[in-house]
Amino acid sequence: MLESLWVWTLATGLISIIGYLLGTWTHDHFSKKNVPHLKPVPFFGNMGSVAFRIVSLPESLVDWYNRLKGHKYGGVYEFLNPIILLRDPELIKMVTVKDFEHFVDRGVRISEEVEPLFGKGLFSLKGQRWKDMRSTLSPAFTSSKMKNMFVLITECGKQLTDFLEKCINDKNMTIEGCKIEREGNILAVEMKDLFTRYTNDVIATSAFGIKWEDDDITAQVALFFLAGFDTASSLLSFASQLLAMHPDIQSRLQDEIDQTLKVDGGNLTYEAVHGMKYLDMVVSAPHINILFTIYLLINNFLDYVIFPFHKSPLVSLYNLLKAIFVLSLVIYVTETLRIYPPIGILERRCVQTYTLPAEPHYTLNPGDFVYIPVYALHHDPDYFPDPEKFDPERFSDENKGSIKACTYLPFGSGPRNCIGKKYLLSV
Q1: More confident site: 137 or 404
Q2: How many structural domains is the chain composed of?
Q3: Which residue among 21, 52, 75, 330 has its CA within the 20 to 30 Å range from the CA of 212?
Q4: Does 418 count as an annotated binding residue?
Q5: Are 134 and 419 in contact (CB under 8 A)?
């Protein structure tokens, strides 16, 4: 009996030791190289709270970022994988811009064999294939294309606002399959269905006759479709929420929109929207060429936007709809993008041996990964005073020059940034 117990104890001990060694065998990587780093735990590294869904990865990166304060970069462990976390804007600029050829690839771990559709997406492609696809897609993002699209979507938007104005004035107005209820002066509309119809009109009008036959192009469409759902729609929802919470900013923005519409005879033009300086501080210049992004962008955003806006006495429903239409042309938002960036982290994969130009000098080898903590940078008071405050004036002509390069990264940085960035921000 005692002998059996001793055998079980020994076996348990050996298994525990082997398990510990397997779960920590890479966790001395940064210690050996004298790199400042966070202490890992077996198997999980520094990802335990993320793995158990206690916090999100961007929130975890804020914690890592703050704990590594005083260092230009530091080491963290993604389970067993050592990862470099960049804190210094100059280092970020080196990795993403100046020495981009060493970090051409993103840190996306999608196998084209396992996921042939998303593996061919622009976000996932590597090396020369990414360069070729980027060159193929870039002509779709020209200013002339955007202007043409703007006119078509404006026509659809006018039809929508005309219809809703009739709903306000005509108590008997109905639309088949769309729920409309009235209680006193309150008009309740099933916006999900209404704007599904609207976005169908937009797509049918602006993309009529376009055929997607090539698998590579189909992959880009699928990627943009999902990107719109997860980023653009959420960001515009946040923008509307912030405006509802700050009626002074909302009122000033509404005044500018109304004044612009008055000057242009009630018509929205590409030039008029780009001429709205305060709008540019709150929301950035539109990029509306990604048709499937537009579909989900408006479809999901407008369900959310009605609730916070209708409470404000500053905006009538009709003027609200005009403001919504302007916002529905805008995919990304400036100050809102700072508070709520679409992705809280950028990843870059080293493709050529590279030594970080900072003490201590650390050499990255092909296959190593770098984290850039976008969310943490956007909420660092050293770069954005009172970072939790919604303050579009940060991006005014007088103030935007004080924003340090590579601290505001909602679209990424360098050649591998968002393909529509130069049309999305009027800097």
Answers
A1: 404
A2: 2
A3: 330
A4: yes
A5: yes
